[in-house]
Design brief:
- By secondary structure, this protein is mainly alpha-helical.
- The protein has a domain of 79 residues: Cytochrome c-like domain (Cytochrome Bc1 Complex, Chain D, domain 2, Orthogonal Bundle), CATH 1.10.760.10.
- Helices cover 40% and strands 3% of the residues.
- The chain has 5 helices and 2 strands, in the order ααββααα.
- The protein has a two-stranded antiparallel ribbon with strand order 1-2.
- A hairpin with a 2-residue loop joins strand 1 and strand 2.
């Protein structure tokens, strides 16, 4: 496949077969809590907080998917950390099921073929 033909492979999700109800629920939580008001996802959104389109991989999802999901859930649940001088994410008091759904959403997003975007792991 040439680069040009790859660009024109439009109208098809790169991982539609992995789009589960948990992923959909996670996306709805992302919207409900307006995460995009602080975070970017795949380069879209605000720039106050980290890019989350590849957070699953940054938490080790390539090597240990289950561990990455647990780490993401624990990190979200531990907010705010109370570290002096740092921007703090609010605690949304999410249930274990909601945290699991968000982790599933982040895994799904991380596996979208973004053709190298964002250009660095940090977003």
């Amino acid at each position: 496949m040439t680069a040009q033909s790859h660009i024109y492979a439009v109208g098809k999700s790169t991982n539609a077969d992995k789009l589960t109800e948990a992923v959909v629920r996670g996306k709805r939580l992302w919207e409900k809590h307006a995460c995009v008001n602080c975070h970017t996802i795949l380069g879209e959104g605000a720039y106050f907080a980290p890019e989350l389109g590849n957070v699953f991989f940054r938490f080790g999802g390539r090597e240990d998917p289950a561990g990455a999901k647990e780490a993401i859930k624990a990190w979200i649940a531990s907010q705010p950390t109370g570290i002096e001088g740092r921007r703090q994410m609010p605690n949304f008091h999410l249930t274990d099921a909601e945290l699991a759904d968000l982790a599933e959403f982040f895994e799904w997003v991380a596996k979208i073929d973004t053709q190298g975007w964002p250009p660095k792991d940090s977003g």
